[in-house]
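Sample pair:
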Amino acid sequence: ARYGIPVSEGQVAATPAEARAAAERIGAPVVVKAQVLVGGRGKAGGIQLAATPDEAEAHAAAILGMDIKGHTVHRVWVERSSEIEREYYFSITFDRGAKRPLLMLTTAGGIDIEEVAEKTPDRLARLHVDPLIGFEPFHARRLCFAAGLPAEEMRQAGEIMAAAYRAFIETDAMLVEINPLIVTPDGKLHALDSKYTVDDNALFRHPDIAEMRDLEALPPEERMARERGVTYVKLDGYVGIIGNGA
């Protein structure tokens, strides 16, 4: 939202009562979404549609405290539900091999992108951007044509891509992913959900983003190591590695 990408109206709730109040303010139907820093929330039951404020309260009660891939849900996001005509996928990631940002767009959104890449790779349009040139309107047009977007949606898609690229560069991100990027029945493009990864080495420049870290989700050993500025990754088994260098 800060970069001008159209998103759904909503608010954070930490209790079922707050979720109910949010649904009443926004106007049901709403969607109740678990706020954890991990993918696969929908499959885990962490995203639920609520037709009434009562349902929103009940869903929030069920989701709060839920464990999703080792992350405990302490907050939910209650947002206005959206009418969906089509679902697309758009992302910007850093391609280490090519040493430049890689943009990907497909009209097969709303599902795992790995599945699209494996089964129908021709539907996934890819484009590298020279970081010294930056994102230009011709990049957007080339991606839209390659992915087969309708002509009347290309201007909106281009504006969203440009805003996402600006966010990618200015916040030192490693991944900006919009899935799904939806088209409403009246032809409006809208970011319905996002996955966003920031380079840990750049967090000193972004204290507002650093505050979003979910330290509660880390094992106690990793939390202790992070407080002391040490990189520690908890692994299974009995083998340990002590490394020193780059």
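The two ends are 36 Å apart (CA to CA).
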